[in-house]
Amino acid sequence: MELWVILSILAAFFQAVRFMLQKHLSQIKLSASGATFARFVYSSPLALLAAALYAAPGLAALPSLGIGFWGYGALGGFAQIAATVCTVMLFGRRNFAVGLTFKKTEVMMAAIIGMVILGDIISPLGFIALCVGLAGVLVLSGPIPVEGRWWTKLLSPSALLGLSAGALFGVSGVSYRAASLMVPGADPFERAILTLAAVTTMQMVGMAAWLYLRDRAEIGRVLGTWRTAIFVGLTSLAGSFCWFAAFTLQNAAYVKAVGQIELIFGFAASSLFFKEKITRREVFGIVLIATSVLVLVVYS
């Protein structure tokens, strides 16, 4: 199995754990913005420390990082935060399921944006695998509740928020790949940790400034929940490092597609630990996603 596949699967696993921790924080202690800020405020220092430790053993000089690196890094960081805001806004809407379904076009958006910005090539078989994976995700999403003419849902605010979130997550993944590829040197792990340290630091500073202006007290609450929130930082650091390293080795669409295995992790936990019954529709969706991942692993 290729390294980028292993990294993508690990990233999906750590992301699933992080979402569970963030959900816990947002439900009992912090707002949605605070739970998101916790991810950056506790992972950024760890990422900076990891970058320093990585270079320290050999006393390696850090490579010079050009304006393109910082530009793509800032674009990816901003797009990720904006995409998260769009997703959170969906939760406040009545027809949230419509928008959430459109958000799941993230992988296809990443494929298109990657081709336009970086010239990434998607093989015909790879494109079919992406479509199969998307179909599996849509099956797992369940039927979309429709009142009135179905086509009006395509123009609803929820649909636009969902499409915006999907497109922004696509921009984020492709931008991170572009930034990491601009780090001189052939070591994918060095590229990943330097890009991660730079991006999370920019995100931490940006969100801190935002909260300082909009909800200053929330910063104190985030710092006060460090016993739980630090684990958000640790899982975020581990997951993001795996994503970034995978992006240096393979195009963002393939990495994101394999990362959809996160949904399978979720359903497995639901069945094994919470003893919840999985329906035939959900089994079919899992089979489609597993097939998509298998094709990408074997033939990409």
UniProtKB/TrEMBL annotation:
Pfam families xrefs: EamA
Highest taxon, organism lineage: Bacteria
InterPro entries for the chain: EamA_dom, EmrE-like
Bilayer-spanning residue ranges: 42-62, 69-91, 111-142, 154-172, 192-213, 225-247, 253-274, 283-299
Sections of the chain in a coiled coil: none
Keywords: Membrane, Transmembrane, Transmembrane helix
GO CC terms: membrane
Every EamA domain range: 159-297
Protein name per Swiss-Prot or TrEMBL: EamA-like transporter family protein
Organism of origin: Cognatishimia maritima
